Design the sequence.
């Protein structure tokens, strides 16, 4: 199974770059993956690391880049990450494979997965926040039917360009575009293939996605360094702070699975789980914002 992930040059200098390396290391737990990185920017130490690790690095450009740049110049749009938009280029780049896996950089593989059993009509994806909320999917893990995606590409890009022409495109991103364009036309992916650490621990899950707080944020929360005064930070941090026992279980499980791959990383995760467990016993937990867990872009 070809496995695509994507990042831009700026992302390689952030925590996303380190998480991408962890994802590549974890593929040892899921044999049969052929890793391919879509990359936008100048080659650097990160891309050399990826090549040395057996990853095929492919220079790529997000579809509709010129429309994004024009909207940015008008002040009506700002791309959170060009790396995320690169996922939309996969059907235009790969003309050989029938089905491929795409993941964000902030995932880890936990066990072998039989991807041959997943054959979506267009693509398969799992829910965003709640594992049973199928009205809106998270695009961090998808199995793509490339021929079907290519056939839909002209209309999909037309939708993106139309949205970017609007004055209210500030919060528009690739995941929103996918949900709007393919609403009612995507297949359900086993939520265990896009498990979130704020969900109940599932020892049979295949892919863990650090959706929301990344490892650096989790450490900041555990050490009392998180900025709870900022509304956005409070919303993101709530996913961890309101579900500390679940995070501890996932981190402990992950540390055990990584022992034979990267002992230093396994020890780091084990210590993080311990600090987080200790923080969870602290009575000084700030008031949390749980509204993000009831997010609904579309009616059920």
Sequence:
């Amino acid at each position: 199974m070809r496995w695509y992930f994507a990042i831009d040059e700026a992302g390689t200098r952030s925590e996303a770059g380190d998480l991408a390396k962890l994802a590549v290391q974890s593929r040892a737990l899921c044999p049969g993956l052929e890793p391919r990185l879509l990359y936008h920017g100048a080659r650097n130490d990160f891309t050399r690391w990826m090549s040395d690790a057996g990853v095929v690095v492919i220079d790529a450009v997000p579809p509709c880049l010129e429309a994004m740049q024009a909207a940015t110049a008008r002040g009506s749009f700002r791309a959170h990450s060009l790396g995320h938009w690169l996922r939309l280029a996969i059907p235009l780049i790969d003309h050989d494979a029938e089905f491929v896996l795409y993941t964000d950089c902030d995932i880890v593989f936990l066990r072998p997965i039989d991807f041959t059993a997943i054959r979506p009509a267009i693509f398969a994806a799992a829910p965003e926040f709640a594992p049973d909320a199928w009205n809106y999917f998270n695009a961090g893990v998808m199995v793509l039917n490339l021929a079907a995606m290519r056939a839909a590409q002209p209309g999909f890009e037309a939708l993106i360009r139309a949205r970017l022409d609007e004055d209210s495109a500030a919060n528009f991103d690739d995941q929103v575009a996918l949900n709007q364009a393919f609403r009612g036309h995507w297949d359900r992916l086993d939520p265990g293939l896009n498990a979130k650490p704020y969900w109940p621990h599932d020892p049979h899950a295949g892919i863990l996605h650090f959706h929301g707080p990344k490892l650096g944020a989790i450490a900041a929360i555990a050490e009392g360094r998180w900025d709870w005064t900022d509304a956005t930070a409070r919303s993101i941090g709530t996913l961890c702070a309101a579900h500390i026992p679940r995070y501890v279980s996932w981190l402990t499980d992950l540390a055990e699975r990584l022992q034979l791959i990267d002992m230093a990383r396994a020890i780091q995760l084990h210590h993080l789980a311990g600090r987080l467990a200790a923080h969870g016993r602290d009575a000084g937990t700030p008031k949390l914002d749980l509204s993000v867990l009831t997010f609904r872009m579309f009616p059920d």
About this structure: The chain is about 40% helix and 15% strand. The beta strands are 2-8, 34-40, 56-59, 99-103, 107-109, 123-127, 137-145, 187-188, 207-209.
